[in-house]
Write a structure and sequence with these properties.
The structure holds two protein chains of two kinds. Chain A is mainly α. Chain A contains seven helices and no strands. By secondary structure, chain B is α+β, with helices and mostly antiparallel strands. In chain B, helix 8 runs parallel beside helix 9, helix 12 packs antiparallel against helix 13 and helix 13 packs across helix 14. The chains are: A mainly alpha, B alpha+beta.
C-alpha cells in the first residue's frame, strides 16, 4: 500500500458511496493481521515503525469508509468539492433550529430520558432517509445533491451529539 | 520417523528457540506474574507457593525493600514506611491525590520542578514509579526463579481507563525494574483473551472489571481470534479500596473516632474494614471489634442491609460508565451475548446483583477474577515474543479518553475522539492569534469536557522560531500519534516555514529519561558499573534482535526482493554488526545497527508491501468465489 492510494483502493473497493460493510470489514481484518505492530513485536525498530505507520493508515481508511458521513465527505473531497461552503436551503435550516429548540425543552419536562430516546430514534430515521437518497445521488453522479445530502447528514450528526451530551448530563 | 536436527557447535538454532516471556498484572492490592509453559498459561508462585503478591512495599534504612505479605504485616506497626495501593498514585499530581484519597496514611513531599509527588520514607523520598518498580522487580525475580532463565520480555496490564500519564508512569516503572515491555495491555482486554481463547467464544462481550482501585468496562467483539474493543469507559480511581474507606468511615462515626486520627489508626481501621467486607461476601452479618492503643474501643456489627446502604452510591458510579460504553458502541442491551466479571471486588454479592440488574443478563462469575488478567497477559506475551508464529490472534484496542489541545478562551479542541482504534494519527491545523507572534504554546489535553479546567493537562510545549506574520496567517499543523501501547506523541510544524517541534508526551507527571537514569544509578549504588553493563547488554540484545529478524527475512525472500548487489551490501553490514557485537563498545554497536537499518530501509518497505499484496490477493479471490 502506498500513500498515493485512495482509501477505497486500500481495500480493493470500487469508489462508491454504497459499499458492502462486510467485505470492507473482512479486508480490514486481513490487512490488520498482516501489518499490525503486534506481528512485528520482535522485529527491528525500523520495521516496527513501518508497521505502526501502515496500521495507522489502514485504521484511518477504515474509519473513514465505515462511517456514512465521513465516507460522503471523503468522496466529495476526491471530487475536489469544497465541503466547507454551506449550501443548505432555508427550510432545512428552520427544521434544524426547531429540532434544537425541542431538545432544549427536555430538561424541564417530566421523563426527559424517555423523550430523549424517542428524539434519538427520530434522528436515526432522518439519517437513514438521507443515506438512502445519497446512495442514489452518488450513483447518478449528481454531486450538487450529494453535497447537500452530506451536509444534511452533518447537521443531524451534530444534533445527535448534542442529544447524547444531554443524556450524559441527565443520567 | 523424522530425524532430529543437530546444529553445528556454536550455531544454536536461535530463531526457533523458546523465549521466556511473562504477563504481569500490576494491581492496586495485589500483583501477579504468569507465563505460558508447555502451551498452558498459568500464574507463577513465589517460593512459599503464593500466586498473589500483595502490592505493598516496606522501606528500611540502608537495605533492600520488603515486598508482599511480609511488608503487609508491617503496615500497622510502621505505616509511614509501608506503601500500599501505590497504583492509585501513579501518574498523578499531588492535587489529584488529595481529591481521590482523603485518608492516605503517607507523608507526601512535593519536589521543586517535579509535578510528581514523593513519599517520605526512612530509605529516602520515593516516587510512585519507584515503588511500582520495586513490586515489578520482585515479580521479575519470582518469574525468573520459577522459569529458570532470563525473561526476554513482558506484557504489563493497565486499566483501560488509564490516561497517558498513568500509562507512561507504568512503562517508566518497568524500565526502572529492567524489564523489556513488549506491550502495555488493557486489563479487560487481557481478561477477554484468557476467557475468549479458552472457550473459542464469539459474539459481543462486556467485561466488567472492578479491582482494588480502578474500574473499567470494555465492550468487545470476539470473532475467530480477533478481539476488537468497540468501546471502553471507566474510572481510574474507583474500587475495593473505596469500599474499605466507606466502611472505615462508618466505623469511625459509630465509634466516635475523630476525623484527624493518626496514620497508624487509619491503617488499622482500613484493615478491620477490609476483613469485614470480605467476611460479608459469604456471611449475612459480621461482628466488628475496634481496640485502638489510645484507649478507644468499640464493638458493633455490620449486616448486608447496612453495607448495601453504604456502597450502593459507589456501585451506581460504575453503572454510569456501563451505559456510556454501550452508547459509544452503538449497541443495545439485547445485543450483548455475555457479561464477564473480573477483579476481586466483583466477588461482592451486591456488586453482582446490581450489575446483573442493569444488564438484564446473567453474569459469568466462574473464572478466577484475580488471575484471569495475568493469564491473558501471559498469552499475549507468549505470542509477541515470537513463540507462536502461527497463532492467528489479533487485538484491536482503542483510546479510552479523547485527546486534544487548548485553543483560545480555555476551550479544548478534540483531535482524537475517545474509542478510536489504535494506532492512530490525526492532524489539525491551527493559526496564530496576535500579529507578529513568533512562538506558539501548545497545551496537550486529555478528557471529555469542553473546558481546559475540566480536562487533564498532559504536557505543554512551544513551537519557536516562526517568522512574525499577521494574525491568522501562520499554518500550524499539529499531529497526534497514539501507538499500540496507547502512548501519545505530539508534533507540530509551521507549514509556511517548516519549523518543526516534537515531544513524546510525558513531562507533566512522568519521568524524563534523565530522571530514570539517575534513579537507576541510585537503585544500583552498591554496584556502580552495573548501569553501564546493563546498557551494553541491552544494546547487544537489540543487535541480536536485528540480526535474527534480518536473517529470517533474508532466508524467506532476500533473493526474491533484493538485487544481487543489495543482497551483498546488506550481508556485509550484517557481518559488521556481528563483529561489533563481540566488542564491548556501546557506541560502535549502536552505529552498526543504524547503518544496517539505513541499508535495509527499502527492503523492509518492499517486504511489507509484498505481505499486504498477498493478504489482499487472497482476498479478491475469496470474494469472487464467495459472490457466486
Amino acid at each position: 500500500m502506498s500513500l498515493t492510494k485512495n482509501y477505497f483502493e486500500v481495500f480493493n473497493l470500487t469508489i462508491a458511496f454504497e459499499i458492502d460493510i462486510n467485505i470492507l470489514t473482512k479486508c480490514y481484518q486481513d490487512l490488520q493481521r498482516t501489518v499490525h505492530p503486534d506481528k512485528y513485536a520482535n522485529a527491528s525498530d525500523q520495521e516496527r515503525r513501518l508497521a505502526m505507520q501502515k496500521t495507522t493508515q489502514i485504521n484511518e481508511a477504515f474509519q473513514t469508509l465505515k462511517d456514512p458521513l465521513k465516507r460522503g465527505l471523503y468522496l466529495l473531497q476526491l471530487r475536489h468539492i469544497d465541503t466547507n461552503i454551506s449550501i443548505m436551503d432555508n427550510n432545512f435550516l428552520m427544521q434544524q433550529i426547531e429540532l434544537h429548540e425541542e431538545l432544549a425543552t427536555f430538561r424541564q419536562q417530566a421523563n426527559p430520558l424517555e423523550k430523549l430516546q424517542h428524539f434519538l430514534d427520530r434522528i436515526e430515521q432522518y439519517k437513514k432517509q438521507i443515506i438512502n437518497t445519497l446512495n442514489q445521488t452518488f450513483t447518478q453522479q449528481d454531486y450538487d445533491s450529494a453535497h447537500s445530502g452530506v451536509q444534511k447528514l452533518q447537521f443531524f450528526s451534530r444534533l445527535n451529539e448534542e442529544a447524547l451530551r444531554l443524556e450524559e448530563e441527565l443520567i | 520417523m523424522a530425524l532430529l536436527q543437530i546444529s553445528e557447535p556454536g550455531q544454536a538454532a536461535a530463531p526457533h528457540q523458546h523465549r521466556l516471556a511473562a504477563g504481569i498484572d500490576l494491581g492496586t492490592t495485589h500483583s501477579l506474574v504468569a507465563s505460558v509453559r508447555s502451551s498452558i498459561p498459568e500464574t507463577l508462585p513465589d517460593i512459599d507457593g503464593n500466586h498473589l503478591l500483595a502490592s505493598i512495599v516496606h522501606y528500611k534504612e540502608n537495605s533492600q525493600p520488603i515486598v508482599g505479605d511480609a511488608a503487609k504485616k508491617l503496615a500497622n506497626s510502621d505505616p509511614l514506611n509501608t506503601i500500599a495501593s501505590v497504583k492509585r498514585l501513579l501518574g498523578r499530581g499531588l492535587e489529584d491525590i488529595k481529591t481521590i484519597g482523603t485518608r492516605l496514611p503517607y507523608e507526601f513531599i512535593e519536589q521543586q520542578g517535579q509535578g510528581m509527588p514523593f513519599i517520605h520514607t526512612v530509605a529516602g523520598n520515593k516516587s510512585p514509579v519507584q515503588v511500582s518498580a520495586d513490586i515489578l522487580t520482585t515479580l521479575k525475580r519470582q518469574a525468573e526463579d520459577t522459569l529458570d532463565g532470563k525473561l526476554t520480555g513482558v506484557v504489563i496490564t493497565v486499566p483501560a481507563y488509564f490516561d497517558d500519564a498513568q500509562r507512561q508512569a507504568t512503562k517508566d516503572a518497568a524500565t526502572l525494574a529492567s524489564l523489556k515491555v513488549l506491550r502495555l495491555l488493557n486489563e479487560p482486554t487481557a481478561a477477554a483473551i484468557a476467557y475468549g481463547l479458552d472457550r473459542e467464544a464469539n459474539g459481543i462481550h462486556a467485561i466488567y472489571d472492578l479491582g482494588g482501585g480502578t474500574f473499567d468496562i470494555s465492550i468487545l467483539r470476539l470473532h475467530h481470534g480477533i478481539f476488537e474493543v468497540i468501546a471502553t469507559a471507566g474510572n481510574s480511581a474507583l474500587g475495593g479500596d473505596d469500599i474499605d474507606q466507606l466502611i472505615a468511615e462508618w466505623i469511625m462515626q459509630q465509634a466516635n473516632i475523630a476525623n484527624d486520627a493518626n496514620h497508624h489508626h487509619i491503617r488499622e481501621l482500613l484493615d478491620i474494614a477490609r476483613t469485614a467486607k470480605e467476611t460479608l461476601t459469604t456471611q449475612e452479618i459480621v461482628a466488628i471489634k475496634v481496640k485502638l492503643d489510645n484507649g478507644i474501643s468499640w464493638n458493633g456489627e455490620l449486616n448486608h442491609a447496612k453495607l448495601n446502604n453504604l456502597i450502593d452510591p459507589l456501585i451506581q458510579k460504575t453503572i454510569i460508565p456501563c451505559r456510556r460504553a454501550l452508547r459509544d458502541a452503538g449497541l443495545s442491551l439485547e445485543e450483548l451475548d455475555e457479561i464477564v466479571m473480573v477483579g476481586g471486588t466483583t466477588r461482592m454479592p451486591r456488586v453482582r446483583e446490581k450489575v446483573a440488574e442493569f444488564f438484564q443478563h446473567s453474569l459469568h462469575v466462574d473464572i478466577d477474577p484475580d488471575r484471569v488478567v495475568a493469564i491473558g497477559a501471559a498469552i499475549q506475551a507468549d505470542i509477541l515474543v515470537g513463540n507462536k508464529p502461527d497463532k492467528d490472534m489479533l487485538l484491536l484496542d482503542v483510546t479510552p479518553l479523547s485527546l486534544g489541545i487548548e485553543t483560545m478562551g480555555g476551550l479544548v479542541e478534540k483531535i482524537i475522539p475517545r474509542n478510536t482504534t489504535i494506532p492512530v494519527a490525526k492532524s489539525q491545523k491551527f493559526t496564530t492569534f496576535k500579529d507578529g507572534q513568533t512562538a506558539i504554546a501548545i497545551h496537550v489535553m486529555q478528557g471529555e469536557r469542553e473546558l481546559v479546567l475540566d480536562c487533564r493537562s498532559l504536557a505543554r510545549f512551544e513551537l519557536r522560531g516562526t517568522p512574525p506574520m499577521v494574525a491568522g496567517a501562520a499554518r500550524i499543523n499539529v499531529t497526534f500519534q497514539v501507538d499500540a501501547d496507547g502512548l501519545l506523541n505530539v508534533s507540530a510544524q509551521e507549514e509556511t516555514t517548516g519549523v518543526h517541534s516534537e515531544i513524546t508526551v510525558k513531562p507533566s507527571y512522568g519521568l524524563h529519561d534523565s530522571d530514570i537514569e539517575t534513579m537507576l544509578k541510585d537503585s544500583l549504588k552498591y554496584a556502580k558499573n552495573d548501569v553501564e553493563k546493563r546498557v551494553l547488554r541491552e544494546q547487544q540484545v537489540e543487535a541480536d534482535r536485528v540480526i535474527n529478524a534480518l536473517r529470517a527475512a533474508l532466508k524467506t525472500d532476500g533473493r526474491k526482493l533484493l538485487k544481487h548487489h543489495e543482497f551483498l551490501e546488506i550481508n556485509t553490514a550484517l557481518n559488521n554488526l556481528l563483529k561489533m557485537k563481540q566488542d564491548n563498545d556501546i557506541k560502535l554497536i549502536k552505529q552498526a545497527i543504524e547503518d544496517l537499518e539505513y541499508l535495509t530501509q527499502s527492503y523492509a518497505q518492499r517486504r511489507m508491501d509484498l505481505a499486504i499484496q498477498n493478504a489482499m490477493q487472497g482476498h479478491s479471490v475469496d470474494e469472487f468465489t464467495g459472490n457466486k
